């Protein structure tokens, strides 16, 4: 008879926050997967800023509408948006109707384009804060996960200096988690790299 106690396979369950269909799909298909796409990274940085003070599920459910209203988060097109266009969006119930947040998306587009005009690659800049490689954390409990890190603080400082807005250290760390710059899936989550076949 085999000793099942020593050979038992650890039961894997998704991270505790991934409750409900929307969150679970986002958790399984996007969160923590390394992303090097300029437009996707820009989109997520802007959307994390829209979340400030709210739950991510609120933004997640409005994400497709944001994409429609902000040209799929094409920085060049957003940079050309007029005040009148943004003022009109402030009446759109499909968006978070916060003037600073909506104008902030255009401000971030202008900041990104200004960086690139200086010859700075936006994707390389973001990934430089983790040395170009995903940081794999091994947290067994959500209580262990920090709200911000030294890398997130450094990213926040650099982005603010470059003219970005809604990029505080906590927002930057949430961005780093979601875009796979850091992997904060729990160690008993099937999405953690240690549990991948």
Textual characterization of the structure:
- The chain has 197 residues and is mainly alpha-helical.
- The protein has 10 helices and 2 strands, in the order ααααααααβααβ.
- A two-stranded parallel ribbon has the order 1-2.
- α9 crosses α10.
- It is globular.
- The N terminus is likely disordered.
Describe what is shown at a glance.
This protein has ten helices and two strands. With 197 residues, it is mostly helical.
Series of secondary-structure elements, N-terminal to C-terminal: HHHHHHHHEHHE
Spatial arrangement of strands, main beta sheet: 1-2
Q: What percent strand?
A: under 5%
Derived structural class: mainly alpha
Mean pLDDT: 94
Q: Tell me the radius of gyration.
A: 19 Å
Count of DSSP H/I helices = 10
Low-confidence parts: 1-8
Strands, total number: 2
Distance between the termini: 28 Å
What does the largest sheet look like?
Answer: 2 strands, parallel
Q: Give the helix proportion (percent range).
A: 40-55%
Shape: globular
């Amino acid at each position: 008879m085999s000793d099942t106690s020593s050979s038992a396979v650890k039961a894997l369950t998704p991270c505790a926050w991934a409750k409900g269909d929307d969150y679970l799909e986002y958790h399984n298909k996007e969160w923590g997967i390394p992303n090097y796409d300029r437009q996707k990274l820009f989109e997520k940085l802007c959307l994390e800023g829209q979340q400030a003070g709210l739950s991510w599920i609120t933004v997640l459910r409005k994400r497709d509408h944001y994409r429609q209203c902000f040209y799929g988060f094409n920085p060049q097109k957003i940079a050309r948006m007029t005040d009148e266009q943004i003022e009109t969006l402030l009446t759109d119930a499909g968006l978070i109707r916060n003037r600073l947040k909506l104008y902030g998306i255009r401000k971030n587009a202008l900041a990104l384009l200004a960086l690139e005009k200086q010859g700075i690659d936006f994707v390389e800049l973001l990934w430089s804060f983790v040395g170009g490689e995903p940081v794999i954390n091994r947290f067994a409990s959500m209580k262990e996960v920090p709200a911000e890190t030294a890398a997130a603080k450094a990213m926040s400082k650099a982005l603010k200096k470059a003219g970005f807005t809604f990029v505080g250290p906590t927002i930057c760390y949430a961005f780093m988690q979601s875009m796979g710059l850091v992997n904060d899936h729990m160690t008993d989550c099937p999405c953690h790299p240690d549990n991948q076949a």
